[in-house]
Task: structure prediction
Amino acid sequence: MVEEGFSPRAMVDSRTRSGKKSAGPRSSRGRSRDRALLPKGGAPAQKGTVRLALVLVALVFINCYVFLWRDHTSVPAVMKQAQAMGNDEAATTAPTPAAAGDDPGGATDEVAADGELAPAPSGVIDGEVAKGDTVGKILRSNGLSAAEADELLRALSGVFDFKTLRPGQRFRIERGPDGRVASFELVVSKIITVRAHRDDRGELIAVEDQAETHLEVEEVGGKITSSLYMAVKGAGERTSLVAFFVDVFAYDLDFYNDTHEGDVFRVLVEKEYKGTEFLRYGHILAAEYAGKAGTFQAFWYQPAGTKKGRYFDAKGQSLEKTLLKTPLKYARVSSKFNPHRMHPILHKVRGHFGVDYAAPVGTPVWAAASGTIVKRAPSGGAGNLVEIKHDGGLVTQYMHLSKFAPGQKVGQRVEAKTVIGYVGTTGLSTGPHLHFGVKKNGAHIDPLTMAPQRAAGIAKKDAAGFRAAVAERQGRMNAISIREGGAGVDDDKDEIPDDGSGVGGVGTDDADP
Ligand SMILES: [Zn+2]
Result:
């Protein structure tokens, strides 16, 4: 299991991401072939033969190198070479474990691509976490006694979150002259390495190393020729940027129907680097999409003292809609809003001021928007009722709940899509369903036909700061020169997925009507 599973594709990808000129084995092989053709052109026979032989030797060597490397068999040699080169270039071109891109679970899934581990001397076991591994399993299968493994696990427990162990992460176990474990190292991500080593007193001490990274704000732009995906690729960016971009405009643009040839996009995006190696995208600070469907702009802004930023248009109005149309999953509308409905139990005209969703008892019910719980109690015909007060004079009501979500109370603030209770049939009800009501400034409105509700815009106190940020970013976006898109050539399907954790405040819920 020593050093297996490094992916050459990932290696090529890491070059691409790091923005280095691609001088990889692929292109050098191509050049060698070109040269191999030259001697046939009538050079003096002997000289030509010698040159041909030399070129052939070189060609065979390079092919072996590439071929073996592709088969994951000569990675140690590559590692050594990277070490020997001993500079940033070497670090950024060292292989990335294949599993790095397999699981879109987040930054912790990003496994280091650098050659931090020195070539293995004797007494050192280098390996890679396999599927189904636990740290304990790894230690024992590499010859540690149960007692030794326990000691190491105890040392790691305060420092390493064992749940973040992922296939493809590299580890190193080093034994001292006395045969005991001297150190253990696990490369958790591109940024985090966990190390345990035996100190002078013979105790194993674990620490977490966090590599320094930095953010750069970069301009990206392109013109649609076939798709936004291709245009982003054509602009030299990773395709994960597309998802972020689509999220920013999710409430206003349908990128399946609204993208047309000739449309132009511009983005100011944070990019996180370790040295010169690109790790992932941060926030899209500003974005513009101009096309047949219109011109749309978005500016990310986080007022001082707030926890997360949101997207606004240039005037400071929120781009996000606040209200989920349906506050639960997997339900069908069983009764619509109707002010003159005959009540099924009372058998008299009693308006139906909401929408009924038939759903099994126990189906989680979400807060349709962020807000404050103002009622949470059994309430006669409404059964177990939750009422939430939102910005903009809106109140939402959730009736007939079988039970309330544990641990919540009146006065508590909840985010959109927080579970606030479970479908039931309490109160005046003929069967399990959720009655969802919306009040605007005290009057009931129809949730199914109400106009989209926008989240709050920029507050007055933040207006000046926001305007300054918009002006600066607008200037930078205007300066982006647009090349034709669609020329993407890098096969970056192996790229490490961004988890979106850096893109704060992007609504990905299904609030869209
Ligand atoms: Zn109802």
The pocket of zinc ion is lined by residues 335, 352, 354, 356, 435 (CB under 6 Å). The two ends are 52 Å apart (CA to CA). The chain has ten helices and 23 strands.
